[in-house]
């Protein structure tokens, strides 16, 4: 076994830990791992503490995630860069089966740009996605976006 181990029970669930940090790990995912999982429904990435660099984040969101066309659950426990948030906003509309979106980033990352163009784009993309469950932890202050979400006065 040369590469990092994958928890890939029955090809429907993929859990990625810190061993996939860096471009080479993400490139391997894009080229070899995800294409071999046509039934992938759950994708989880756990790379806390900003360990996944910005370039790898963008590659992951633009090259890996869109290949999982049947994805129902996407968990990103990653300190997402602003660019990555923009990438996520771009790919979300293509994930027609997505029902659960769980993003947990370091609070500092998103707080500094809660009103940024990218975050706003992400919120708009989320509104257009028929999610059953949404978790945004770490400074995506949705109160800033209640107008877009159509949730004025809602208890978030």
TrEMBL record:
Domain of life the protein comes from: Eukaryota
Name of the featured protein: Uncharacterized protein
């Amino acid at each position: 076994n040369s590469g990092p181990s994958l928890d890939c029970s029955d090809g429907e669930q993929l859990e990625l830990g810190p061993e996939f940090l860096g471009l080479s790990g993400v490139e391997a995912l894009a080229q070899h791992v995800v294409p071999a999982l046509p039934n992938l429904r759950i994708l989880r990435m756990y790379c806390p503490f900003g360990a996944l660099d910005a370039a790898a984040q963008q590659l992951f969101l633009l090259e890996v995630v869109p290949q999982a066309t049947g994805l129902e659950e996407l968990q990103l426990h990653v300190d997402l860069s602003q660019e990555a948030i923009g990438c996520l906003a771009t790919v979300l509309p293509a994930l027609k089966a997505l029902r659960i979106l769980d993003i947990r980033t370091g609070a500092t990352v998103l707080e500094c740009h809660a009103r940024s163009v990218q975050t706003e784009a992400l919120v708009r993309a989320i509104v257009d996605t028929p999610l059953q469950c949404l978790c945004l932890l770490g400074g995506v202050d949705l109160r800033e976006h209640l107008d877009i979400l159509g949730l004025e006065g809602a208890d978030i």
